[in-house]
Design goal:
Uridine Diphospho-n-acetylenolpyruvylglucosamine Reductase, domain 2, 340 residues, 29% strand, 7 helices, 20 strands, Uridine Diphospho-n-acetylenolpyruvylglucosamine Reductase, domain 1, binds flavin-adenine dinucleotide, alpha+beta, Uridine Diphospho-n-acetylenolpyruvylglucosamine Reductase, domain 3, 4-stranded mixed β-sheet, 5-stranded antiparallel β-sheet
Length: 340
Amino acid sequence: MHRDIKENVLLSQYTTFGIGGEAEFFAVAENEEDLVWLAGHALERGLPVSILGGGSNLLVGDRGVTGLVIKNEIKGISHEVQDENVLVTAGAGEEWDSFVLHTVKAGWWGLENLSAIPGTVGATPIQNVGAYGVEVGGLIKEVKVYSLREQKFLVMTQAECCFGYRDSIFKSELGRDLVVVSVTYALRVTPNPQIHYKDLAEYFSSRVGLPSQEEIRNAVIEIRSKKFPDWKQLGTAGSFFKNPIISTEHFNKLSELYAGLPGYLTTDGMMKVSLGWILDKVCDLRGVREGNVGTYEKQSLVLVNYGGATEVEVSNFAETIKDAVSEKTKIEIEMEPQRW
Ligand SMILES: Cc1cc2nc3c(=O)[nH]c(=O)nc-3n(C[C@H](O)[C@H](O)[C@H](O)COP(=O)(O)OP(=O)(O)OC[C@H]3O[C@@H](n4cnc5c(N)ncnc54)[C@H](O)[C@@H]3O)c2cc1C
């Protein structure tokens, strides 16, 4: 049992950005019983509840968070083989990349392209974590949640999670009171390499035969290390903006202005545009710094905290980027991390 509720806990120590004021109350849930107890305690006292994983997709305000922050540390991994599939269930508090490594070592295909992403298992359905041509939503069979409103556990199917690009029901009004307790992924026991994504295709272009799961994981780790800083050295929440999705008409107009603009047709006939390219080639914002905040020198989508940055500084810097993109392209870009 871990029901020690602390007061005035500085959240910057729990975010990869290294930014954020104090949580009014703070506690750790190590199992489902802890979670139910803490949620009940918050309800009785009328305290809003916020769920914290690894803090790698958060921009926390300098004035902190009112109510109770519950750090989800519910652990445990189990699996069940069903013919060519293996259903692997992991506790929300498992560290994501250690879990990915576990699946790769076991020879369960599916998550290797999502290697080296910080954070926890429980946060992966929230924004439908994706990288290198794979989104977690496509591999999720079901998500076990605890409803803070209804005070009961529910199991949600993949369809009920309404996964979209960096989106799911958990980010909507309907899903905001749902705490992810565990996630079940449907992986494969037979090889299923996904190397169509540009960077991976290039990496393996001279390879004869298909790469192993381990080779794909290592390739992803190597490619990522050239694009993202080590957040333990340089605070960051990864890509700060989503790649925008615009109409083909808008895309064609922009392509006439900015030759070479990369765009990918989505399944619903829209164009997903590379914001990194726009920030680099159209707005000239790579490696730009203002005070303690800047765009990362190797990937301008990534904002970094050079030390001592505040949320206000990051927000102001992000606004100048938004304005620059809007002025040059008429695209209104959206922030990717969640705001607290
Ligand atoms: C260097 C770097 C690289 C990154 N690369 C990628 C990438 O390639 N692709 C990608 O998609 N993301 C990427 N991210 C973003 C981030 O790592 C992921 O979104 C990750 O899943 C967040 O996990 P977390 O546990 O840290 O969530 P947190 O930051 O703790 O929380 C994020 C949000 O999810 C909610 N949440 C967390 N856990 C739960 C739960 N159990 N139940 C309900 N709600 C919960 C929180 O309340 C919050 O709103 C990157 C971040 C960094 C710093």
